[in-house]
Amino acid sequence: MYSTTFLDLPALTQAQGTVSLPGSKSISNRVLLLAALSQGTTVVHDLLDSDDTRVMLKALQQLGCTVAPTTIAPGQPVHITGLAGALPAHASAELFMGNAGTAMRPLTAALSVLGGDFRLSGVPRMHERPIGDLVDALRQLGCRIAYLGNEGFPPLHITQPDFSQWPDSPIQVRGDVSSQFLTSLLMALPLLASSRDITIEVVGELISKPYIHITLELLARFGIAVRNENWQRFTIPAGSRYRSPGEIHVEADASSASYFIALGAIAHGEGITIQGVGLDSIQGDIRFVEAARAMGASVEGGPNWLRIRRGAWPLQAIDLDCNHIPDAAMTLAVMALYANGTTTLRNIASWRVKETDRIAAMTLELRKLGALVEEGADFIRITPPATAADWRAASIHTYDDHRVAMCFSLAAFNAAGLPVRIEDPKCVAKTFPDYFEALLSVCSTPRERIPVICIDGPTASGKGTIAAEVAQALGYHLLDSGALYRLTGLAASRAGMALEASDAPQIAALARTLPVRFDAEQRIWLGDEDVTLALRSEEAGMNASRVSALPAVREALVDLQLSFQQLPGLVADGRDMGTVIFPNAPLKVYLSASAACRADRRHKQLISKGIAANIDALRADLEARDARDMNRSVAPLKPAEDSVLLDSSALSIEEVAAQVLSWWQERQPFGRD
Ligand code: DC
User: Fold this and answer.
1) CB 154 less than 6 A from any atom of ligand 1
2) What is the mean pLDDT of residues 36-56?
3) CA separation for the pair 585, 137 (Å, rounded)
4) Is 399's C-beta closer than 6 angstroms to any atom of ligand 1?
5) Does ligand 1 come within 6 angstroms of the Cβ of 545?
6) Cα of 282 from ligand 1 centre, angstroms
7) Which member of 199, 307, 400, 417 has the lowest number of beta carbons within 10 Å of its beta carbon?
8) C-alpha triplet 289, 335, 305: angle, nearest 5°
9) Which residues are annotated as catalytic?
10) CA nearest 535: which of 518, 549, 559, 520?
């Protein structure tokens, strides 16, 4: 996940490959509860790992279900052995529901029907989320639920029900507050339907029918065939009994799929394959496919996959009622930037009351990119920038709304070759923490568009630390080129080579095939060996200095270094980064500091590691190494001509990093509109 303040996406051109998307939250938690109520073991594949599903899994274990493994790992199914429709006698538990509405509501219904002694609570926000309409419906049957705090809200105390006054009339539930209340009843009441039909009647208009559709589809998979009379009355037939389907796959989230469907329609390339959700999806947002096709996308699909390519180009402008796909319709608004005319998305009043006022947000942000946008109470009308010259580089504000962040990433395909800045990219965590990683893994762009920041300076100038800080702040990759010379020195000396010109061809051959890997924790691996510490030794520095003076070795490491220039950008630290490897880098910084200051820093560093050191000796060493590095004929230590100099003697690490970042910002095109 990118936790940076902003993420700059360079202009993108191509996309191809396969993405696997996270599982749908709505399906995951329904499947878990249904498996828990069934007899036998259900093997659940592709379960979403999120706060809400963890809450549900933990609660099910507390209730006596066997769950294995107890944590969700990618690619590993979870086995749930159900309760066969009954809890152990005198069951009791304190259940903490966090902020998981998809656990709180259905468990309240199921437990109050099963009976026992349960307290259900959550985070403070959960205690502000209404549950009164569900409790009222359950009380009609004889369920006993008491409010422990405010009337109508969790926390709740559930005790043994008394079904002696079972009503003849249908159970009534309001449908216009949250469809989760009806879903909860639909999943709990089959437990009571062994000898009688149970009818639920919706009072008021039923909102979010697509979610009820998901519930009904999943109930059918677990053996319960609910009769749906016009979304107003639902009857669970007598004799209903939960039966595990044995295995079940959780579909990938169809709303998340919309970004990759749009990507396939916009980008050049061989097309995008989406795994985990197909044309037969039970999720309402799968109908985004129809809208994308209407705009020109070429979409094929099967039971668990979709494949998208560019079809018509430019895309076709559309005029569409989007009431059935409110979330995915935001993606259409960004596709409209690539259309041949004005696109109107109608009947989207619900956008105004989502994570943010999405009509206002989309209007403002699309205008920043150069589009003409008209907004109404329940529609948005978008005319794309007239020519490439009318596009502007924009910093997109994301309003803590995951969908704003995700859909605007697609503006990086603009014909003007402009980058797009996404502010607060971590807001995607709500449904898709690794969205940008997934996006960038299938996107590409000509190498020269991927920005590089070069940082160099004499030994102990702090360049490594600063490079790492800057890379982290921008979400960029990091190339510690010195480490590559250190690795080459280490591997060559272990292979018994002489670290001088006589063995240069062999060392160069070794350098070309170094099995090196830098991991996310900034550890360096040579094959299976973690050599991070070994590389920091004085001897490794010495060996690096020797092999780095051999032109054949420098030449051999060029391709490896170039291969670090990957999306979204790179910070490269070391000697010839700005002169030889990335001569066109838009920012080159040369850090310096007085010898006294550097000796002092190195001294502190050694002491902190428990290594004894003498500050005068260190200073003499530094000065000798400076002289040697500056005077050597191969890649001598000197600032690139177009680099900016920064004397860090009187500055902290934070101050130096802030200065470098501010130079970087000055070179960006954002915010000048
Ligand atoms: O930055 P460092 O101390 O890890 O560098 C180790 C040696 O490699 C040092 O002598 C400089 C040399 N080097 C180089 O010649 N070219 C680079 N791009 C990086 C380091």
Assistant:
1) no
2) 93
3) 66
4) no
5) yes
6) 57
7) 400
8) 30
9) 327
10) 518
